[in-house]
Amino acid sequence: MERVPFAELPDIALGPLDGRYRGAVAPLVDHLSEAALNRARLHVEVEWLIHLTTNHILPGAPGLSEAEIAYLRDVVATFGAEEIAELATIERETLHDVKAVEYFLKRRLASAPDTLGETVLPQVSEIVHIFCTSEDINNLSYALTVRDAVTDVWLPSARSATDAVADLAREHADVPMLARTHGQAATPVTLGKELAVLAHRLRRQIRRIEAAEYLGKINGATGTYGAHTVSVPDADWQQVARAFVEHLGLTWNPLTTQIESHDWQAEVYADMARFNRILHNLATDVWTYISLGYFRQRLSAQGSTGSSTMPHKVNPIRFENAEANLEISCALLDTLSATLVTSRLQRDLTDSTTQRNIGVAFGHSMLALDNVRRGLAGLDVDAATMAADLDANWEVLGEAVQSAMRAAGIAGAQGMADPYERLKELTRGRRVDGPAMREFISGLGLPDDVQARLLALSPADYVGLAPQLVAHLD
């Protein structure tokens, strides 16, 4: 018996972002899907037509009324399922995506009298796409869609996840924890301070991404305004182009080949990848803290079966899922950054297919952010486990004791020689309990006030300014 051919079933997705994980990434569809790109192309074509006619740049071109301008912009606003299907039909004939958008708009100009009655719109058909190469439309469309995906979708999600980390840091600013440099017991910190470090790093990348520039150009086939100046020599075409790009809310790039150079994209994607990698660091650290028992996971918050065969387990799946998706996102973002900054001579098409994966790169990052938020929301801090861990590692006070000895010796106290070596002999490679450490301190001959301060110290108290440092998040 032959198997059912799934390729003929339209609702079956090839990739997980449009299948299993659709809910987490759905907001990106309005910006980074093929349909969203075509709507942006239509928007650019409409605004270029309005720009040229309302500013009287083309001698003899009719001006447009407010009703006609509203009609044109409504073509973009009402671009939905039927229009997507119509455009796809046109593209099957043109075999060119941007040309299909041009023809689609010309159809709407031709049918404008059905809505407006008497109108000049059918007469301006040849102004559509005038002086434009496909990349004049594409670069502006990608800049608009990427900008809106970053500002309206990705950044709010990134801020939300980072704020969740910052909230945990503030809540647990005072909870002492054994640090583990190189995986070994080290000078104690607080859980809040360690989480604050990660939140601080993530916020710095967010600020860089918030400050990103989104560049655009509209200067013709090789960036010279050649067709523009031959056809309408009296216009200030650089100013016309600059005004149009800035009208779209973008930054004008005055020097390009046929394509806008995509350097701004590489910059944004590199910063996003760096954010991803810091978030990956968070995920692996939290995973480790869970394995150490510092965090307990609430099964109800995880919303999952821990193991198919071991019912006692609550697996840290949110953080593992985040790790994997961050790695996929970074791989794509790195490829985008590396590929898009290079174009052979004045133009090649490597960027065309590459840019169609922007949504996939963003999607895997969004999925990771969703998992991190949900994972953090399902954690409870086990301060007792952390306290027990600290109490089993009194040797970490070796740093405090030998530093106090150094300071006392500098202040004139006698018998403070070789503090590091003396502590190394006591602590290296062995566990030291409280009584042994206090006995050692009592035999050092320290000044009374220094000895009293050290004898009162425990690993849980030896956190320095860690609780106060969390305040830097605010």
Automatic annotation (TrEMBL):
Function (record text): Catalyzes two reactions in de novo purine nucleotide biosynthesis. Catalyzes the breakdown of 5-aminoimidazole- (N-succinylocarboxamide) ribotide (SAICAR or 2-[5-amino-1-(5-phospho-beta-D-ribosyl)imidazole-4-carboxamido]succinate) to 5-aminoimidazole-4-carboxamide ribotide (AICAR or 5-amino-1-(5-phospho-beta-D-ribosyl)imidazole-4-carboxamide) and fumarate, and of adenylosuccinate (ADS or N(6)-(1,2-dicarboxyethyl)-AMP) to adenosine monophosphate (AMP) and fumarate.
SUPFAM superfamilies named among the record's database cross-references: L-aspartase-like
Family the entry assigns: Belongs to the lyase 1 family. Adenylosuccinate lyase subfamily.
Domain named Fumarate lyase N-terminal: residues: 19-322
Enzyme class: lyase
Nucleotide-binding recorded as keyword: no
Keywords for the protein's UniProt record, in alphabetical order: Lyase, Purine biosynthesis
Highest classification ranks of the organism: Bacteria, Bacillati, Actinomycetota, Actinomycetes, Micrococcales
Natural source organism: Ruania alba
Record protein name field: Adenylosuccinate lyase
Reaction catalysed by this enzyme: (2S)-2-[5-amino-1-(5-phospho-beta-D-ribosyl)imidazole-4-carboxamido]succinate = 5-amino-1-(5-phospho-beta-D-ribosyl)imidazole-4-carboxamide + fumarate; N(6)-(1,2-dicarboxyethyl)-AMP = fumarate + AMP
Coiled-coil annotated spans: none
